[in-house]
Design goal:
103 residues, alpha/beta, two-stranded parallel ribbon, 4 strands, 29% helix, globular
């Protein structure tokens, strides 16, 4: 498994030795600079077995970047999942991943 994104976000999963890190960062600047990450994402997702668990990141919030086949794409809507729950974001993310991957 490869976590794509900034190191700070990867740290949520760094304790799991099965997960590697691909440090694709959100680029600052105009739209052209922000979409400049697309070739790197395309290469990472080239395998037909790629499964995307999207944490509603800045990389994909605009909906302009291809993130793999729709049937292999799962969005964690971090602003709404858990609603009024007092659980931590890592706890909610773990619950969402468990529920998503077990179904």
């Amino acid at each position: 498994m490869i976590f794509v994104g900034p190191l700070k976000n990867y740290e949520l999963f760094a304790g799991d030795p099965r997960i590697q890190h691909a440090p694709v960062a959100w680029r600052r600047g105009g739209l052209r600079e922000r979409l400049g990450v697309e070739p790197e994402l395309r290469e990472l997702l080239a395998d037909q077995d790629s499964l995307v668990l999207d944490p509603d990141s800045r990389l994909t919030q605009l909906g302009l970047l291809p993130v793999g086949a729709e049937e292999r794409y799962h969005l964690f809507e971090s602003r709404s999942y858990g609603g009024s729950s007092a659980r931590t974001l890592p706890g909610l993310a773990a619950e969402w991943a468990r529920d998503t991957l077990e179904s």
